[in-house]
Every structure is written in C-alpha cells, then in structure tokens.
Amino acid sequence: MEATDICTLSTLSIGLCGILFLIQLYYIFGVYNRIHCARRNTSSAPIQYPPVSVIIVTKDSGKALEENLPAILEQDYPEFEVIVINDKSAGEDDDILKRLSLRYQNLYQSFIPESARYVSRKKLGIAMGIRASRYEWLVFTEPYCRPTSKNWLKSMAGHFDDKTDIVLGYSNYLPQSGWFARKITTIEFFHSLRFLGSALAGRPYMGIGRNLAYRKSLYERHKGFSDHLQLQRGEDDLFINAVARKENTQVATEAESIVRMPVPPFKRIWYEEQMNHLVTGHYYKGVSRLMNAIETGTCILFQLTTLCALALSIFQQWWTGVAIAFLLWLIRFACLMIVFRNTAKDLQENLCCIFPFFDMARPFWSIGMKIRYLFRTKTDFMRR
C-alpha cells in the first residue's frame, strides 16, 4: 500500500473517531448522567402521601417472603396495604403468609387457581392483585426484593402528583464477592442508567417490576396486559412501554427509593432473565431499540476505530494523528468514568474498579447474549 493511501486511511479513521466520539458524548451526558443531575436537583417541597397498594406475586419463595416482607410491611407510611398472590407454591409460602398476617393487619393474600390455563400466571397474578387492591396508586415488587429504607414508599410517593401516572425506581443486587456477582451488578447498573436516564430525558420506554408504581386507572384504561398476552413475560416493561409518556412518567432517584435482591444462586437463572428481556425488547414501540443499538454499535466502533487510527498513524509516523486519536479516547473514557462514578455513588454502588473493564467488554457481552438468544426457540417464551 502506498504512503498516500495510508495517509488517507489514517485521516479518514481520525475523522470517523471524531464523529463516533461526539455520538458517545451525547449518550454519556444526555442519557447516563441524567440520574446524577436529577439527584442534585431534587426539591424539598412538602408532600402529601396518598394510600397505596403494594402487589407481590410469589411462587415457592417462602424463605424470601419471611426475610423481606416485614421490611415492606413495616414501612413508615401513613396508609398502605400489601397484597400477595400465591401461584400454587409447592413450598411453605402459604404457612408463612398466614403467620405474617397474624402480625400485620395490612397484609392480604390470595392464590391463582390451579385450573388457570393458557395464560401467563405472572400476569394473571398481577391482574388479580390489581383487582383486589383498594387504592389508586399501585406499587410493585418481588418476593426476593427488599427495600433499603423504611422510607421506600414515601420516596416513591414523593413523585405522585396530578400529572403523573408512572414512577420508575432503581433496583440492583446485594453486594457480594466474586466475579459473577460484580459482573451482573454492573450490567444491571448500566441497564438502569440507560432506561432511567432515557425516562429522565423525556423518552421512557420500559420499567422493571421489582420497583415500579403506576395508577390503577391507567391499567384499567389500557385494558391491562391485553397487548401481549401471548408472551410469558412483559407484565412490566411492555406495559410501561405502551403507556409511558414524557408527561406522565417520573423517576425516583433518591437513595431511600432503592430496592435490592440477592444474587441468583445459579448463573442460568440470570441468563434466563436476560433472555426474557431480549424477547420483550423486540416488542418495544418507539425508537428505544434503535437508540440502544446505536449506542452499543458506536461504542464498539469507537474502540476499534481508535485502535485502527493509532496503528495507521504510528506506521506513518504521523504523531499529530496519534495524539488526536489518543486524546479522543482519553476524553471519552474520562467522561464516562466520571459519570459512572458519580451515579454509582448516588445509587450506593461500589463498582468503580470494574468500570474500565466493563466499558471495553460490554459490547462483546451484548453480542454474546444475542448469539445465545438465536439458539432459543420461540415457544420457550410463549404462554403455556
């Protein structure tokens, strides 16, 4: 290859680096930094707390219920009820719920009939809980989730106002040693930066049922989960994707609004959850899928293009090009690490040591999950 050709390639690669750099900065400061900015701008206006119904669907979660339900039932909140729907558990869920109901007068339980067929039992359980609820505001979580504060409900309700129909909250795993635990905690953290940041930017596209609130009237107006009854899951993210708008959605970013859960005992449980997210993601309306794909694609292209620009510039001994390529990489990396660090501190995560590796490995992990998904059959995710 002639010197002029190498010069042209190195110049083009530097130019492409610049374009990808600007796109990445848009995501870093326009989306991922939104949680940190929202934390700094939190108002201290007086709040009135409406009564709420907390809804949980359980299946063979006896130990988790015994450990976590008291933290929900003992919330410092004026008026609330907790409704637990039992999905024909083979364990001791029923005995534990009966024992707890003797201690807590605001705990109510019901069960999904064994005769229920041809419908997602999780969706049916939530629908039963909503029908049994007495209050307009509904808060959803899981039996293995535990609020980090007695003011969890107050923190969520602090965002309830006349214009709001939906409040999204942050959830992640409990701190645990080991590579797998740190990896999935960081992935969950980044996923939250993405969907909560997008909501704060005025483009809500999903929610997670571990920490989520919305109005009962919103559910009824939308006819529940009728849009996606064919899927086993989607009772949280697909429902929010269909009804969330810039005007009716808020995000709880306070430390007291955080919910945590234990790291899955088996890796396959976590991978199965990721498969379900990939499936429901294909049904998202709007530009969210495209926006997320652009971010992931430009991230990996920026890394590869920077390496290419550095190699070509060094080969040509064009030191100005080397300096430009390295500076672009360094500025992006520094900006991303600052945003990650600030937001991790806000959300009480200790993940700073893994951020540099995560930034490089994340696009390849995403590709790996999509390859796993390709080997699954459609019937794995449909209702039975």
From TrEMBL:
Coiled coil segments of this chain: none
A GO molecular function held by the record: glycosyltransferase activity
Key words, A-Z: Glycosyltransferase, Membrane, Transferase, Transmembrane, Transmembrane helix
EC number(s) recorded for this UniProt protein: 2.4.-.-
Superkingdom of source: Bacteria
Domain Glycosyltransferase 2-like: 53-220
UniProt name for this protein: Glycosyltransferase
Pfam family of the protein (one): Glycos_transf_2
Annotated TM spans: 12-32, 293-312, 318-340
PANTHER family in the record: GLYCOSYLTRANSFERASE (PTHR43685), GLYCOSYLTRANSFERASE 2-LIKE DOMAIN-CONTAINING PROTEIN (PTHR43685:SF2)
InterPro entries: Glyco_trans_2-like, Glycosyltransf_2, Nucleotide-diphossugar_trans
